[in-house]
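Hi support team,

I'm opening this ticket because the web form for multi-chain structure prediction keeps timing out on my end. I have pasted the exact lines I submitted so you can reproduce it. The total is 540 residues across two entries, so I didn't expect it to be a heavy job. Is there a limit I'm missing, or should I split the entries? Thanks in advance, R.K.
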Amino acid sequence: MTRPIRPILEVRGAHFAYGRSAPVLTDVSVAVTPGRSLALVGESGAGKTTLLRLLLGLARPTSGQVLYEGKELAPRDRALMREFRRGVQTVFQDPYSSLDPRQRVGRIVSEPLRSLGLREDMTARVAAALDAVGLPEDAASRYPQEFSGGQRQRIAIARAIVCEPRVLLADEPVSALDVSTRVRVVDLLQDLRETRALTVVMVSHDLAVVAALCQEVAVLERGRIVERGDTAQVLGAPRHPYTRRLIDSVPRLPPPKG
Amino acid sequence: MTLLTVAGLHVRGPEGRDLVSDVSFTLGAGERLGLIGESGSGKSMTALAITGLTPPGLTVSGSVVFDTPGLDRGLDRIEVVGAGERRLTSLRGRLTSTVFQEPLTALDPLMRVGRQVAEPLRRRRGLRGRALHAAVTAALEEVRLADPERIARAYPHEISGGQRQRVAIAMALACDPALLIADEPTTALDVTVQADVLTLLDGLVEERGMALLFISHDLAVVSRIAERVIVLKDGVAVESGSVGEVVNAPRHPYTRELVGSARRLDGALDSAIDGAIDGRTP
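Hello R.K., no limit was hit. The queue was backed up. Here is the completed structure from your submission:
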């Protein structure tokens, strides 16, 4: 599928293997276009998280390329890497282990600003980020363990958006949360997508969350992309058997009566 | 016939705070009850109190009575609250056994799967040698594990999460409990594996006529397997009824929120499947 808009972030023909073991990703290409949030869907071990690590620049493909704004990521190109770090931020799955318990929330949220050297108006930026995720102003002076799981995930999201990135990469951002908290965090991500022109790339096996948040889906099976397209098209008319099985497996409430 | 009667159950923390507060319900033999609530709502604590496994430092009061004629030296009623550890040990497995959320921590990482499954079979059924080996293979086959001989020789880390949870289920069933407690048994699993494990549990409970207490934060999962549900919030049972009643006519505001959240996620998926997605949940 070709789109006229240039991708912000792209993986081209990537192969990846940890050491000498069997390949985790085989010839994977995905492109993230602005305003088109993308879900990476698949079973554990399908390679979703590894693909996300490539997109985050935390791992380099064994062969193939990762491009930001059309330029191949190169750890030595410091200007590009800085731009990339500012433009692409992440939220992890487990809000209980991704926040340092010894640091106050304000310091946690300001971390990307400090590491990027954006020291101007730091307090105001942190306050704006906390406000954007719906946390009270005094949250900055408290510790993460004073917050519930859903609130902690909001803190992690505030940290990710504080430097106003263009892409938010999230690894199962709501799967550790209770269902009603999950819905609220999905709402928050939807809002941020619109108000902050954020494109979300999300690893998930929860198709309901995918449907709520992402316009595009790529389905991975054993390190290969087996199906890709618009969410409505992939979920409405799945071609690959695994995609069909995934849709049939989603637990549903019994249909409402009357 | 009533198997389990929980009456006025309280579990109190060391600072005197109620983790479970005045919970009462009954469970018939072969009946399936879902316990639903968010993390910290007291659902796992209720299950631990039923098995007499509450951690030290917590105070349990109220009553948890099993009616199992003929199970224990002709005694018909067994009160768990206040019972001695030795007596509980002798009853555990036959009265209840539990499948926990995370099979990787529930299984011993240093012991081959076959030996772990053999342990309850040896203790409860007194099997040895070839008979024990055959019983282990049969137990693994019963949870639909293909190639049970290979699984039996494997260590837990050598098999998948779904296979591990099947092993944990085989161990829980080894003593033929009257009540199987499943505490978030599919939460750590992929959606497709979750569907398979739910189908498996459904079939096993049916075949054996076991009662099932199924604990989850996910109303959709609970409604797939339970007949009745109890909704817990902050240690208090705020609503109970048949799955149909609770899902179609929730009374408590908290239950309404739970149902509403689940319906919204269903709706997002439906509108995507119908090709009507516009990026907003309805």
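A quick check on our side: Strands of chain A lie at 9-16, 25-32, 38-41, 63-68, 71-72, 88-91, 167-171, 199-204, 216-221, 224-230. Let us know if the file doesn't open in your viewer.
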